[in-house]
Automatic annotation (TrEMBL), chain B:
<protein>
    <recommendedName>
        <fullName>ABC transporter permease</fullName>
    </recommendedName>
</protein>
<feature type="transmembrane region" description="Helical">
    <location>
        <begin position="138"/>
        <end position="159"/>
    </location>
</feature>
<keyword id="KW-0812">Transmembrane</keyword>
<feature type="transmembrane region" description="Helical">
    <location>
        <begin position="90"/>
        <end position="110"/>
    </location>
</feature>
<feature type="transmembrane region" description="Helical">
    <location>
        <begin position="52"/>
        <end position="69"/>
    </location>
</feature>
<feature type="transmembrane region" description="Helical">
    <location>
        <begin position="166"/>
        <end position="187"/>
    </location>
</feature>
<feature type="transmembrane region" description="Helical">
    <location>
        <begin position="207"/>
        <end position="226"/>
    </location>
</feature>
<feature type="transmembrane region" description="Helical">
    <location>
        <begin position="21"/>
        <end position="40"/>
    </location>
</feature>
<keyword id="KW-0472">Membrane</keyword>
UniProtKB/TrEMBL annotation, chain C:
<dbReference type="Pfam" id="PF00005">
    <property type="entry name" value="ABC_tran"/>
</dbReference>
<dbReference type="InterPro" id="IPR003439">
    <property type="entry name" value="ABC_transporter-like_ATP-bd"/>
</dbReference>
<dbReference type="InterPro" id="IPR027417">
    <property type="entry name" value="P-loop_NTPase"/>
</dbReference>
<dbReference type="InterPro" id="IPR003593">
    <property type="entry name" value="AAA+_ATPase"/>
</dbReference>
<dbReference type="InterPro" id="IPR051782">
    <property type="entry name" value="ABC_Transporter_VariousFunc"/>
</dbReference>
<keyword id="KW-0813">Transport</keyword>
<keyword id="KW-0067">ATP-binding</keyword>
<feature type="domain" description="ABC transporter">
    <location>
        <begin position="5"/>
        <end position="230"/>
    </location>
</feature>
<dbReference type="GO" id="GO:0005524">
    <property type="term" value="F:ATP binding"/>
</dbReference>
Amino acid sequence: MEDGRPIFLQIAELLENSILDGTFPEESQVPSTNELAAFHRINPATAAKGVNTLVDDGTLYKKRGIGMFVSSGARAKLRGRRRDEFARQYVRPLLTEARKLGIEPAELKSMIDTWEEGR
Amino acid sequence: MNRAFTVARLQFVGWRSVVGWPWGILALSFLINVALFSAMNEADDFEPSTGGLMSIYVVMFVASVNAITQDFPFALGLGVSRRSFYLGNVLHFAGQAISYAAVLYLLAVIEEATDGWGVNLTFFGLPFLMVDNPVLRFLGFALPFLLLGFIGIAIGLVFKRWGINGLLMLSTVALAGIGGLVVLATWQGWWSAIGGWFADQPGWAMLVGWPALLTLLLAGLSYLTIRRATP
Amino acid sequence: MSAVVTVTELTKRYRGVTALDGVSFSLAENRIHGLLGRNGAGKTTLMQILTAQNFATSGEISVFGQHPYENEQVLSRISFIKESQTYPSHLRVTHVLRAARLVYPGWDEEFAQRLVDVFQLPRGRNVRKLSRGMLSALGIVVGLASRAPLTFFDEPYLGLDAVARQIFYDHLLADYTEHPRTIVLSTHLIDEVSDLIEHVLLIDRGRLLLDVEAEALRGQVVTVSGPVAAVDEFSRTGTELHRASLGGTARVTVRGDFGPAAHDRARSLGLDLEASSLQDIVVRLTTSQNGHATGSAAAADKKEAVR
């Protein structure tokens, strides 16, 4: 695990990423707390905390005695939330750095277009 | 008390060396003596005794020092209390003293019956242990094990609690004390009185009574010391 | 959440040297606690007192609700594996395991044998002829297979290479997951165990510097660097642990409550922000003058974190 950031958040993020990219489709079972702990070599209580944050926000739900499953509609909801975060996480630092270098917003837009075409 | 029995068993996990050393060394000493005596089997009236029997007691003494210096830290590391360790060791030593004394007694009887193993060797039946009462004779074999065992435990504990300086201090004090008494007795002309006192002691007291008293005293003192000892 | 160990104002003095100085904390049941600190900080003394192998000068301790001294009921539930453990010189590896099996009510023989294989311990070899690493491995086997409800590992890895240490951590984690119990892991290889421990105790020069959940600590200490004025502006919100400056640029390690909002603030101030690892935090706290000053802050944090 990456150091310096709460591990349970990293676990939650990893699960979210797998739901977003379709590794864990809706209504499919996700790995158990113990499996996550053993795989990532982390304390099981920390893994459980990560899973539980996703249960609390409705991304996952518990089937008693069976395990954790991806809620239906979870993927769309995650995508919406991540899109909101995208602006804060990526666009803002981009603009800050651009301002430092004297790149005007119009120029920035054309740079993005050029990169997108050359992809 | 259950835990004390566990400790007694714990002391026996390496039983091959626990039993092997004392009897191995005794057997070796015995065989050397037999060989020597069969080589010089000329003089018929010559009936000396050897000090070979002492070897088993010396080994047991060393084992009891080790009980404190080596087994004590190990047992405490395994979550055994000092009291259980102590009681377990008492059981362990008492068990050995009784069974070893029984074997030595038996060997002494065989020795007598075979005229000293056919070579006139007095190895087990030491003259000062020659008493008619079988119980006293048995105790005469058993008590030295316990006495030496507790002396060993006491020495081990002094070393454990006060280190090598404590041991040096103890021997200095003991030597000075004994030396002082000798000087005092000589100066005051007490020797004949002391000799008389020893001569007046009944055989059972010299053989069993006084060693038992000393053993009990040491047992009590070592118990008080071990309760505050750290591994 | 019940406390397995409670320590109140524990002090230990050896002729003139204060090994522990008014230490108070409690250990919650069925967790892995990391007992961290430099060599000679007082970790071993603390564990010796908790296992009744040593005596306190003053203060109260309670283990499973009772004092452990000469208390069979408590002692039989404790396993204390220490780097300095000695064994009677006539014993072989199998003898040590047999002794442990006799003593620990929860001993798992099958598990012990499996671990002996994993660590490639020579069963018939005399303990005197074991290498330093093999002695450590033997201690680890006893500590894990005893399944004691309270298990102390005091730097149990001397002479073990990185591979063997990872084997230890993996088995510790797997067995703990299957058989939850209270584990205290004393170590200065903090990076290696930082993901395993749930709760952190940091001792330095006999005093308790940290008593906090590991997850709460993560992100609590950050290093920001940039123009002095901006760095000063940012570090006002926390306790400064370390500062280095070069010309108009400063790099400061600060302890405080730094969530995502703080990251945004650093960014808007034009600062580089780097979260510190557990290892960095420990190094900073045990070397800074402010480390001890934050001792009382640590106690306050603890209440917040534990709630």
